[in-house]
Each structure stands twice: as structure tokens, then as C-alpha cells.
């Protein structure tokens, strides 16, 4: 599941493969960009912004992509077979003299002027892994709606950029609050810890092939994906339920003993 650390890793792979190299192939498999051809131009850099990727290309253009749930970018040495999925799932191919970056199942893909990147990412809050990180602003954004459930506020990229469903559940556990606790009811000392804790979790995982939030290699997560197994702290069975407006499934995990606050009734326990 792509979150801020995963997108940061994808940006680094793409940057290392493409930056400073001339495009020998530029293929966007979308009707809107069927005739776009940037071959002969140099890739300047690939920058992550929250869960967004910005590939900047000579001539003042940026290829903006977002992975959402299923998208991915794969890098292959030329001559190697592409294995990221069937050909009909390929949305973009950026080729150089020795490598190809192939975008699979990309739900968001647009070509825009670099000067207009704000149209794609200007709404985002401070980036947990970016140079614009501002913990005070992030906390102020979160606390701006004290009635909003903690989990929903963490997922809102306008508050702070980079948290997805995994980190949402893990942060709520570490804060000792259920994802449904209104932010205004989160103890002040714990709220103050939230930005630094979120940043630390993403930073320690951005260079890891496997995400670990517990510090234990044998148990990578405290609650996410662990229902109905016992809590690592108190042995109470972890519970799971969906959180959000119902437009998409957002499975949320919590420990009913270690985490204080409201929780849905009739929640399920996953096998």
C-alpha cells in the first residue's frame, strides 16, 4: 500500500534511473496525451510530494503521477523483460539509452507545466519527508477541526502529507487513542507528540524494504493487519472496522484495551 515512505522510495529509484539522461522514448498511454512526445529532452529530477510524484523534464514540463492503491513504477534495464503486470495495465513508459521506467495501473497521470505544479500538489499540507516539513503548521491543521475523528484527520493530506492507512492505525495505537476519537479529546501532551512521531515513523522506514513500526523484525506492526491476533502489549484481540465516508474501504485496526475512545459496534475480527 503506497504511503509517503513508499512514494519516497519510488521517487529515488526513478531519479537514480532517469535524472540527467535524455529520453529516447516517451509514451503516455492515455487518449489525452497520445500525441505527446518529449523524446530528446533531459529528465531533470524526480521529486516526491506526499503521495505524489513529480518528474520534471527539460522545457518546463512535469509529469505528475499518483499511485493510490495499486499503481507502481518499475525500472528495467533495456533488454530485460517487463514484469510489473500485463501490457494493458501500462500507462507510461519513459525510456533512456540504458533503462526504462514503466508505470503500471497509474490512476492519476498528467503532463503540466512545471510552473503550474501547484495545481496538482498545492493543496497538500506539510510533507513529512519533504523540505517543507513544518510540525507546528501540521499540528495546527489537525487541531483546526476538533470534532473530527483522529483517523480521518490523519488521512487528510491537506493537514499533513504522507500518511496512509497503515500509519494511521499505527499512530493511533502509539498515541493510545482509537481512530474515532475526536481530535479535541486527544490529551494535549499526546497531540503535541503527534507530528514528531509521524515523521519519525516515516523517516526510519523510507530506506527499508519492509515497513516496521514496532522496532521488531518478527512483528512488523502493532495493530495494522493483525486482527484478531492478540495485542503485542496486552494480549487483547485486535479489532478491525472500516472508517470513512463509505466511498472506499479503509480498514482500520485498533486495540480496544490499549486505545481510549469511541469505536464502532459490530466491528469485525479478520482471520
Could you explain how this protein is built, in words?
It is built from 6 helices and 10 strands; from the N terminus they run H-E-E-E-E-E-E-E-E-H-H-H-H-H-E-E. The strands form 3 sheets. It has a 4-stranded antiparallel β-sheet, covered by helices on one side. The chain has a 4-stranded antiparallel β-sheet with strand order 2-3-4-8, covered by helices on one side. It has a two-stranded antiparallel sheet with strand order 9-10. With 271 residues, the protein is an alpha+beta fold. The mean pLDDT is 94. It has helices spanning 4-18, 118-121, 135-143, 150-155, 165-175, 188-205, and strands spanning 25-28, 43-49, 52-57, 61-66, 72-77, 90-95, 99-104, 108-113, 239-242, 251-254. Helix 3 crosses helix 6 (188-205). It has 2 domains: 4-122, MutM-like, N-terminal (N-terminal domain of MutM-like DNA repair proteins, Alpha-Beta Barrel), CATH 3.20.190.10; 135-254, Helicase, Ruva Protein, domain 3. It is elongated, with a radius of gyration of 20 Å. Belongs to the FPG family. Residues 2-103 form the Formamidopyrimidine-DNA glycosylase catalytic domain. Residues 222-260 form the FPG-type domain. GO terms for molecular function: class I DNA-(apurinic or apyrimidinic site) endonuclease activity; damaged DNA binding; oxidized pyrimidine nucleobase lesion DNA N-glycosylase activity; zinc ion binding. Keywords: DNA damage, DNA repair, DNA-binding, Glycosidase, Hydrolase, Lyase, Metal-binding, Multifunctional enzyme, Zinc, Zinc-finger.
Largest sheet: 4 strands, antiparallel
**In total, how many domains does the architecture comprise?**
2
| Computed structural class | alpha+beta
Numbering strands along the chain, what is their spatial order in the largest sheet?
1-6-7-5
Low-pLDDT regions: none
The CATH topology of the largest domain? Helicase, Ruva Protein, domain 3
Query: Can you identify the CATH class of the largest domain?
Result: Mainly Alpha
Specify the overall morphology: elongated
Strand fraction equals 15-25%
The number of distinct helices, counting runs of at least 4 residues, comes to 6
What's the end-to-end separation, in Å? Answer: 20 Å
CATH architecture of the largest domain: Orthogonal Bundle
Number of β-strand runs: 10
Order of helices and strands: HEEEEEEEEHHHHHEE
* Average pLDDT rating: 94
What level of helicity do the residues show?
A: 10-25%
InterPro entries: FPG_cat, FPG_N, H2TH_FPG, Nei2_N, Ribosomal_uS13-like_H2TH, Znf_DNA_glyclase/AP_lyase
Domain FPG-type: 222-260
GO molecular function: class I DNA-(apurinic or apyrimidinic site) endonuclease activity; damaged DNA binding; oxidized pyrimidine nucleobase lesion DNA N-glycosylase activity; zinc ion binding
Pfam family, one: Fapy_DNA_glyco
